[in-house]
Amino acid sequence: MKKFLSVVTVLLMLTLLLTSCGKPSPDGDITGYAEKVSIIGREVPAFTLSDSADFSILQISDTHIISGSTKKDIKALDSIRTQIEKLKPQLVVVSGDMVEGNNKNSKFNKKTALETVGNMFEELSQYWAYVPGNNDGEMMGSTADVAAFLSQYEHCIVSNEENLTGATQYSVDLKNTDGKTVHSLIFLDSLARDENNKYDYMKDDQVEWAKKTAESKTQENPDIFLSFFFHMNTPYFAKSGKEGSAYTGAFNYNHIPSDFYEGIDGNKAFDEMTVDLGNVGLVSIGHIHPATNYCSFLDGTYYHVTRAAGFGVTKNPGCTLITIHTDVKDTKDMYDFTEIVF
After folding, report:
1. Of 87, 58, 91, nearest to 184 (Cα)?
2. What's the domain count of the chain?
3. Residue 48 needs a FRET pair 20 to 30 A away by CA distance; which of 82, 101, 313, 327 works?
4. pLDDT tier at 175 (50, 70, 90 boundaries)?
5. How far is Cα 189 from Cα 229, in angstroms, rounded to an integer?
6. Is the whole-model pTM more than 0.85?
7. Dihedral sign for Cα atoms in the order 173, 177, 178, 183
8. What CATH number does the domain containing 306 carry?
9. Quick check: is 11 in a domain?
């Protein structure tokens, strides 16, 4: 009998071990957070430029943080902190896939991952703008939950408009010393996957919101230019690689390859909207995890892809320093892109 009970005990322990192995802790689940905290109409800051009229952005994407405490997490966050302390950007843009998605790792903890990132920016008193990627809402909380959770951090810029598809839609204005808006940064949620598990696309209401937002800023200042940030690519990224020209600046940069992934055909509506506006200088994304940054210029607009910042996501993680010369009228000379490898 004792032998039988011992066997049963061992089998039960093995069963528990096998069923729990690879499953993340439920303590990290933030599901439902958006129901408790609304970011609709949340106020975002405007930035006043110095006499130089330049504005610096450190763009970070695809960190894929597991918990904030794994070796790869720590390496990525330490590298980001080093660049912020060294470059002192006026704004950090986190363009999606900040946390891992569909992760079977038992170390995965969405809550502590978000807390670690949020606390880092608070310690640095660094303003940062967030838009979600396709991985951010795949488990243990939707992208809306992530955006709502991040809104507790004073230096996190995140907001949304009522009755719009997606978790985040907002704009950040850059003003000259006279208080006039001379450039605007517009942030959208490029969504995740549809019911067929294929990459989704920005919906008509999002594109219409972006158009109206851009037009209202142009009415205020007919000379204004706009920069867009989100996560997943549009067809014009591939088109700029085939028909456009490579970025040429102080640092070498790779032209978007002619065989660049097109996909996400539904985002063509966004491309057509930006062409019609005629004052969009930059569309910048992450998502692709390129071995090196890409940047191409087509019809007055730069299409820019930043490398992943997560260790383990790519062999050479890094980020991008973008300098906007807001007093320049030619979009080709308006931006400087500096590729950074950790």
Report:
1. 91
2. 1
3. 82
4. very high
5. 9
6. yes
7. negative
8. 3.60.21.10
9. no
